[in-house]
Design goal:
Length: 210
């Protein structure tokens, strides 16, 4: 009974480790496939994407240094007040993605004036329909928490250390389990050999008596 109680946590940890490992492999495989397909076709296979917001221009709606969920959008469905992600023509971030709110729609939906919720004035550079990539859906608080940890040097070291420790523990338990299985098989094989030897010995003794 004691051996069973001691090994039970190890078995549970091993099962959890297997699940996490296969989930990680599956996610990596999906990301690789999506990346390859996107590069070959020039199109994204998924409507939704995650983006990392660096600045506080959209606070309090979107916090500085946070992950947000965005989705592909039909420009014709946009209205004033929607938060969009677009390729900015602002001289400071020219060509980079920016996420701001639609302040005004001009030129029959072909041109947009945007403004950050935390900005006093609208953006000087206008946004054209062809520049719009996504529409904001929501902020991702949990991913943001881990993203902020990961974005710092100390957080990166901590994250890598935790992963390495987990791999070390998981590998040790797996190796020990394999060793135990191998030893158990060897012992069983030795027992079978000895039993067979004794049976043959008894059979020979019976033959000699007869």
């Amino acid at each position: 009974m004691e051996k069973t109680n001691v090994s039970k946590p190890k078995k549970i940890f091993k099962k959890i480790g297997n699940i996490i490992f296969f989930i990680f492999i599956a996610i990596m495989a999906v990301l690789i496939v999506l990346s390859v397909v996107s590069k070959k076709t020039g199109k994204q296979m998924l409507s939704y994407s995650m983006l990392w917001v660096l600045t506080d221009s959209m606070e309090p709606t979107i916090k500085e240094q946070s992950y947000i969920l965005v989705k592909k959008v039909d420009v014709n469905t946009l209205k004033e007040g929607d938060v969009i992600t677009f390729k900015s023509h602002d001289s400071t971030i020219n060509g980079e993605l920016n996420t701001h709110r639609i302040y005004q729609i001009v030129e029959e939906g072909k041109e947009f004036i945007t403004k950050g919720d935390n900005c006093v004035a609208p953006d000087e550079a206008h946004v054209y329909a062809s520049d719009i990539e996504y529409k904001y859906v929501c902020s991702l608080s949990i991913l943001t928490f881990f993203g902020r940890i990961y974005s710092t040097k100390a957080g990166l070291i901590l994250t890598v250390s935790i992963i390495l420790i987990f791999i070390l523990i998981y590998s040790t338990l797996t190796i020990n389990s394999l060793k135990k299985e191998t030893n158990a098989k060897s012992k069983q094989a030795e027992i079978d050999r000895l039993v067979k030897k004794e049976v043959e010995k008894l059979e020979n003794q019976n033959k000699n008596k007869s």
